[in-house]
Structure formats: C-alpha cells, structure tokens
Amino acid sequence: MDINPDAIGYVAATLTTASFLPQAILTIKTRDTESLSLSMYSLFTLGVFCWLIYGIYLNNNAIVIANSITFLLALSILSFKIYNSFFKKAGQPSKPSKKNRR
C-alpha cells in the first residue's frame, strides 16, 4: 500500500485550518476579544506567516493554501484584539445590544 505524502499534507492542512474557523467566526461575529491573549495571537499570526513563507519557498501548495487562509483569519482576530486593547474606550460595548437599538 502506497501512501501519498501530498494527500496527508492536504488532510492535515484542512483539519488544522478548519479547527481555527470556530474561533475566527465567533470573534468576527461578536468582536469580543477580552479573553484572548494579545501576545499569543501576535506570536501565532507571525508563526503562521513564517509557515506561509516556508511553504512558498518549498513550493508546497498544501502549506501555502492552509497557511494563507489561517493567516487571514488570525490577522483579522489580531486586528480586533489590538483595536479592543488600545483604541476602544474602557466600558464601551463591542457591539450595541439589541435592547438599546431603536
């Protein structure tokens, strides 16, 4: 039985990228980043970017595709975290609640 290493790479890329989607969707939807670590997301985003560059260097589509998607998602979460940490006024809700809208 021959195992195709590229197939394993695509399965791994799909699983790891898909595992990141729930956090990304929740953060983008709620804009709530209070419980997220700024240093962790900064390092994670930089690490994913390095994997992307590495994949480009190796010309490995599985690494490039997975890390391109994950980088964009991580960068969007990191952007919300930076905004919420440094630019949002203390006590200001991320999003108006439904009962306060008219």
Structural description of this entry:
- By secondary structure, the chain is an all-alpha fold.
- The protein has a single domain (5-85), classed as Monooxygenase (Up-down Bundle).
- The chain is 72% helix and 0% strand.
- The chain is built from 3 helices and no strands.
- It has helices at 5-30, 38-58, 61-86.
- Helix 1 (5-30) runs parallel beside helix 3 and helix 2 (38-58) packs antiparallel against helix 3.
- The chain is elongated.
- The relative contact order is 0.15.
- The mean pLDDT is 88.
Question: How do the helices and strands line up, and which of them pair or pack?
Answer:
Elements lengths: L4 H26 L7 H21 L2 H26 L16
Helix pairs in contact: 1-3, 2-3
Features of this protein?
Monooxygenase; 72% helix; 3 helices; mainly alpha; 102 residues
What's the short version?
The chain is an all-alpha fold and 102 residues long.
Query: What is the class in the CATH system?
Result: Mainly Alpha
How would you characterize the largest beta sheet? none
The chain-level structural class is mainly alpha
Determine Rg (CA atoms, Å).
Answer: 17 Å
Helix content: over 70%
